[in-house]
Amino acid sequence: MRILFTYMGAPTTPDEIGDFIFRFLYDVRHHIGLDVPGARVIIKGIAKARARQVKSHYDAIGGKSPLVDYMREIAEGVSERTGYEIELGMCYSRPLLEEIEGPFDLVFPMYHVYSSSTTERCLVKIRELFGEVPYVREWYENGKFVVWVRENIRAGLKESGFENPYVILSVHSLPKRVIDEGDPYLESHQKLAKTVMEAFDSPWEIAFQSKFGKGEWLGPDVPEVLERLKGEGVEEVLVYPLSFLVENIETLYELDVEYKEVADKLGLKYYRARLNHRSPLLIEAISEVIENASG
């Protein structure tokens, strides 16, 4: 059994930041008004400028994102647990999908919640390269995965030392038009959040992060919610990144640096719960999903 684990990816070296941004923007040029003559040159310029802007963000977390390395660790753990051969292939960073060899018996997107903006984009590339391959659409309802999320939140609550925290479940935002067109992303995250938080007494809500580009996006964003909570007399806030499996620039910089600064200025006690990708629970959850899909 040969399985492809896939994701959009993240820069694996400082030199790959610009290339990663270019590959992503060029792929979505139809959706951002850049499908024009000379698009490649235009987007290369935009990617270089954006890379310069975010270089300091990556410098703050070690010069690169750990995302690919951590996903490789998950793949190795699942391979050891199941005995299946697992290959890692990314849309926009190395190891690139076009640089690996098929065929594959199953595709496993490392997005636990399906979206046309993420999962489907990977699947389109995979179809172009390898033809039709069976795939797991989404897997956020797996019981062991839900327990894994709860364990991460419990660990964060314990580490924070908070006595009466308000929990923010941070979700990567999407353009509102994507949801209006029928994408299940928001509803799925709402279902996951409700299921996870049934095990806790703390007040909670979903907020959004990582808006990119123009137009109306899902909100409110985390800083808006922090400001509102301060006005309501909340003193302690625990943030958990519900959209992610592993640490990345959006957790280690956006949540840990940028939003922490917002909380500090507001006088809020702020703690961000970690993503324990090495937990046996996560490995068992993914292994179970794959075994069910391949059986």
Strand runs, count = 7
How many structural domains in the coordinates?
2
Largest sheet: 4 strands, parallel
Report how far apart the termini are.
11 Å
| CATH architecture designation of the largest domain | 3-Layer(aba) Sandwich
Beta-strand content: 5-15%
Query: Could you give the order of strands across the largest sheet?
Result: 5-4-6-7
- Given as residue ranges, the uncertain stretches (5+ residues, pLDDT < 50) are none
- The string of secondary-structure elements, in order, is EHHHEEHHEHHEHEHEH
Question: Which shape, going by the Cα principal axes?
Answer: globular
CATH class placement of the largest domain: Alpha Beta
Task: State the helix count.
Answer: 10
Mean of residue pLDDT values: 96
Radius of gyration: 19 Å
Helix content: 40-55%
Structure notes:
Belongs to the ferrochelatase family. Keywords: Heme biosynthesis, Iron, Lyase, Porphyrin biosynthesis. InterPro entries: Ferrochelatase (IPR001015), Ferrochelatase_AS (IPR019772), Ferrochelatase_C (IPR033644). One of its GO terms (molecular function) is ferrochelatase activity. Pfam families: Ferrochelatase. With 295 residues, the protein is α/β, with parallel strands linked by helices. It folds into two domains: 2-138 and 283-294, Rossmann fold (3-Layer(aba) Sandwich), CATH 3.40.50.1400; 143-272, Rossmann fold. 47% of the residues lie in helices and 13% in strands. The protein contains ten helices and seven strands. It has helices at residues 17-27, 39-60, 67-82, 119-130, 143-160, 176-180, 185-197, 222-231, 249-266, 280-294, and strands at residues 2-7, 85-90, 106-109, 166-172, 204-209, 236-241, 269-272. The strands form two sheets. A four-stranded parallel β-sheet has the order 5-4-6-7, sandwiched between helices. It has a three-stranded parallel β-sheet with strand order 2-1-3, sandwiched between helices. The longest helix has 22 residues, at 39-60. It is globular and about 55 Å long. The mean pLDDT is 96.
